[in-house]
């Protein structure tokens, strides 16, 4: 009976096994390796049926990273709900630690400026003439008076003597 059922499913189309659904409502399917009615081998596939069918509205993060790793074949078994919740909790903890570290760095930097431990870096934008249009001198050209071989480095004249 099972062989008849499998043959009927193969004839009507590919067999999809529902593996799971994520918190966004995306459904994940596994299509095992099969043989078509002509005897051709069809390799196994992993598919996602997204909630939002419009691909132009898809954004990064609509598929959890655990499920994406399963679809791409980076992991053998599909993720469990507990694993997804644990990873989400650890991501939130990391975000909080980063925010706390940035806040501490900002406070210590402000204290260093206040105590005079750090001086202002004076760069091009800090120069007094920055942003002011100051006309330059007229360019000097030696094009009309230049004689080939007449120029020598400053120390070269003393070395020949």
Structure summary:
The protein has 161 residues and is of the alpha+beta class.
Give the overall silhouette.
elongated
Number of strands: 5
Instruction: Return Rg in Å.
Output: 36 Å
* Poorly predicted regions: none
Ends distance: 111 Å
What portion of residues is helical? 25-40%
Largest sheet: 3 strands, antiparallel
Overall pLDDT confidence: 79
What distinguishing features does this structure have?
two-stranded antiparallel ribbon, alpha+beta, 161 residues, 3-stranded antiparallel sheet, 2 domains, 4 helices
Description:
The chain has 161 residues and is of the alpha+beta class. The protein folds into 2 domains: 1-78, no CATH class; 80-118. It is built from 4 helices and 5 strands. It has helices at residues 2-12, 65-71, 81-115, 156-160, and strands spanning 17-21, 27-31, 34-35, 41-42, 45-49. The strands form 2 sheets. It has a 3-stranded antiparallel beta sheet, with helices on one face. Strands 3-4 form a two-stranded antiparallel ribbon. A hairpin with a 5-residue loop joins strand 3 and strand 4. It is elongated and about 105 Å long. The protein starts with a helix and ends with a helix.
Compile the SSE list and pairings.
Elements: H1 2-12, E1 17-21, E2 27-31, E3 34-35, E4 41-42, E5 45-49, H2 65-71, H3 81-115, H4 156-160
Antiparallel strand pairs: 1-2, 2-5, 3-4
